[in-house]
Every structure is written in structure tokens, then in C-alpha cells.
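LOG
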Amino acid sequence: MNVITEEKLKKHYRDNYKYDVTRQFREGNFFEQYWIKNRIEKIKKYITPSEKNILDLGCGTGEITKSIAKAFPDSDVVGIDISPWTIRKAKSYHLNAKNVEFLVGDAFNLKFRKNTFDIVISTEVIEHLLSPELIFDEVSRVLKKNGLFIICVPFKYHPIWQIESIRNLFSIDYKKESKEGGKHYEPFHRSYVLKDLLNVSDKFEYFSHCYAGLFTALIVVLKKSIS
């Protein structure tokens, strides 16, 4: 039996996963472009110019990272991803981004000091983890007191996550590349409702939530509740 472990998942996303969000945004169909843009706009509403240090955790090819940096030019935005391939892509796509830095990094072991960031963003990451509480611990460590953790995950009750033919509408690569061996293959994937994320860690308290992408995505904002 091929048992999925956190280490196997990390190896997969580090070495094999080749999902290019920036390409999807630029070349995808209407649904794909809307889905990405709408998530970005919803996330931006929770950020103000007073938040000077922002981390995008699992940034992929950097489309969200770049958009946040552009919207808040006086903030320093860092995007990290476990995949060297996606970070190379991010750097090549966003050469002119002035206040953004892209780094290869492991979300389970962040190379930042305690209380570094005002905001941590994580989109399309938590649903691929067996042990999300470990990520919550690291985010709590690097967030300043009362800092915000903005999480975007699939919304459990939307039919897109149950009906594969609907998912095909939302991605130019999904049908071809979502099977094992494909660049968009996901060994582990789950969807969430609000209470699922509220029960992950006692280091955060509820701040706000909303839905994005025609209710395909749940955005939950948590506030760090300990120093």
C-alpha cells in the first residue's frame, strides 16, 4: 500500500508539481480568470497600508503575491514556495515588482524570526496538508501579536469539488494534467467549512470570513491571539 505521508507530499510539491497560476490567469478561460481575480480582490480587502510586512505562504508562480505588492507599494511582500520550479517562474514573470521577494522555503520550517509579519496569506495550500496544525503553529510564530492569517481553501459544499466535469470548466489544464503523473496532480485534497478551520489551532481566534469565485472558495481570516 502506498501510504501518503507529509514528507511524500512535500517531495511531490517540491519536485513534480508544475501548476502555473500566472499562465492560467493570462491564458485561461473566463471562469479561470474570474476565479483567480476574484480571490485576489477579496483577500486585498482584509489588508490595509499599515501592514508593512506581508508573507504569501505557498505563493506558486506569484500572481497573488505580485498583486498584493502592487496594491500596497509601501509594504514589503515575501512569497515562499517549496518548489524551486515555481519560484523560478515567479521571478521570471514578475521581474519589475519592486517591493516583492520570492524565496524557496518550507512552510513547516519558516526561516523567519518570531513576530516578523503583520499578515500571512495562504491560498490553495492548507487543503493539501495532512497536518495543517503544524503550519498554523509556524504562522503563529512568525506573525506579530494580533496579526492576521488569511486562508483560502475549497468550500466543501460547492459541487465543483464533487463533479469532475464542472472542474474541467475552471482550468485549461485540469482534464489533461490532473491525473497521476500530470503537472497538476494532487495526491491529497480536501475541502472545508468554517468550523473546520476554527478548530485547527487555539493560537488563533476568528476575525472574519467570506466566499470567493462563485462560492467555490472559502476565505477565513484568523487573528493571532497569543504573543
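LOG (cont.) second protein
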Amino acid sequence: MTEPPNAAANHRALGEHFLAAQMPEKAVEQLRAALSLEPDDAFTHALMALALVETNRLDAAAHEAQIALQLEPDMAFYHFVRGVVFCAQHRWKEAQKALETAIALDPDESDYHARLAGVWSALQKPRLAAQSAREALELDPDNPDAHLFLGQALLNLGEKDAARAHFERAVSLEPQSADAHNGMGACLLRLGDKQGALRSISEALRLDPENASARHNLVLAMGAKNPFYGLFWRWSLLLTRLPSWGQIAVILGLWAAMRGLDALADANPALRPYATDVLGFYLVFCVYTWVAPALFKAWLKRQNAI
């Protein structure tokens, strides 16, 4: 049977619809039909790349994105799609380059800036992430990804209250986003609201049971309420509030202080009993920080919590 003249466009439109409706397998089916009729349509290849990312077929997605760029190398959207594929592959530097190219070609597209903010976040550059997210929000104040990534950046910069406002906005704009609920839970955990954190993280896992970050945060949230793990959690939280150099300074400072105390006790034997107590406590604390996470995770597994 001969396809009608607009058959490829109809298949492509259905593919877009299924992709937006988070039905990627059906999107792939329709887009494959469109490509069988118009194999050189760059836009269809780009949509196919996005659908394949959602089905975790990343090598095939990279191939489709490359074809789209070969057909139309100066189209910003296709560089963006390639950046999305690189993000899914955790190839952050290549994603950065692709997204910066997309922005250079079309600086007024909010999603491009928001996605770049996510890349900066993955590269642990929260100030650049915040800058890109704010640029996205200037173009579209209701971009949920921009609010999510700005919340993450602000949380990493220690601005917990400001981060909470952006996570709340991300959740209100996209209530079916597991990442938004997970971000809200992580923020509430840092703010000390353990019950609220558990509710948000549990909702994230309801929406996406395989979300690795949410599963990790669930362990942290449950640990914060556990008497045995609680001390370790508070110690970890204290360190996360410091910059990386500050964390290193605290750890090395404690080690140097213990060495100094031991030397002082050698020089003044009357201090030895007190020094022994302090050094013993320090040794027990060190061992505790090494074994607490593993023991707590083992307990969670026995409780079927993870």
C-alpha cells in the first residue's frame, strides 16, 4: 500500500507527541516509520536521538544525533540534542562543548542554558551552574529544569533557604519529576527537616524507583534518624558546609592536633593519662566513621529498606 504524501510528517508528529507524553518506545516506532519514508530528515533523526536516550540506547542515540548534525551542522537544536546524549553518557566535557555551541548559535533558548547548568553541576562548578540557570530563567521564568539546577547550585554553595524556594518551584512546575522531589528532599535534609526530607525522597522513588540519587538520599535521611548512624551523618553534614579546602584543613588539623598532644604527653608524663583518653576517643571516632556507613547499609538491607 502506498503511503499518503504527508505520511512522514504524520509519523513525525506522532513521534513528537509520544516523546512529550513520556512514551519513548512508541515514539521510536513512529519516528522509525518517518525515517523509512524520509531518511535524510535531520529533525526526525534528532527526535529519534532523544527518544533513544529515554530508552537508554545511548550508542544508537549518539549515532542519530551525529546524523542530524551531518545533515544540518549549523542548526542549534541538533548541537543541543548531541549535548543531551553526552549528558546521558556522562561525557560532561563533550556535553559542555556541544551545549556552548548550541547557545552560540541560538542564545535565546532557555533549555540550552538550563541543560548547561546541569553540566556545570555535574562538573562540580556550582557558581557556573547558578549563572547558567539564572540565564535560563531570564529567558523563561517557568523553566523547571532551570529552577532544579539553580536549587542544586545554591545548595552546594550553602544558600539552603534560597535553594529551597527553587526546588519548591521546580516541584510545582513539574510535579511528576523525580529529580525535583529528590532535590527538595536533599535540601530539607540539609535544613534539618528529616520528616519532610523522607516524604520528598519517598515521592521521588515512587515516581522513579531506580533513581540512584534518591536511593542514596533515602539512606542519608533514614540514617539521620538512626541513633547509631546519626553522629556520622552530623559529622558529614558539618564537613559538607565547608569548602573543599576547609574539609581538608579540618581532617589534617585533627590529625596534627593528636600528634601534638602525643608529643606533649611524652614531654610531660603527668599529662599522659589525659592524652591517652583523648587519643583513644579519637581512634574510636576514626574507626566509627569508617565502619558506620557499611554497618548502617547492612542494617537497612536486613530491614528491606533498600
